[in-house]
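Protocol step 4 of 5: obtain the predicted structure for the target chain.
Materials: sequence only (see below). No template structures provided, no constraints applied. The aim of this step is simply to have a reference model before the mutagenesis design in step 5. Sequence pasted as it appears in the construct record:
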Amino acid sequence: MSPSHKNVFHSPASESCLAVREVLNRVGDKWSVLIVQLLADGPKRFSELRRTIEGISQRMLTLTLKGLERDGLVTRTVYPTIPPRVEYALTGLGRTLRKPIESLAKWAQDNRELIQQARNRYDGISS
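Step 4 output (structure tokens):
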């Protein structure tokens, strides 16, 4: 398809889906959700986040924090000490994610058994 014909298939609905997908790619991964939840209690140092988040590698934590910072959800503050101290905190925009994440977590907890039952039925497993 030539570049001039590309926009023929774009509609407001498809653009909306693209916007939602881009945001969910950032905030929908498990590490971002955990980091937002941890930073909801206040600023944290990198090492504190790393110790608290079981299973995350240093590289993945770094990449996730950079992505959250790029999207305006987290700020990174470097303090001129020796060694330098770096803290991460939620921005105003990042704080607005708390309620949707808490709602989704509550929904998951409330429906966990029903989802497992549906999976068992689908997989042909009797309970």
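Step 4 remarks: The first strand starts at residue 44 and ends at 45. The beta strands are 44-45, 74-79, 85-90.
Proceed to step 5.
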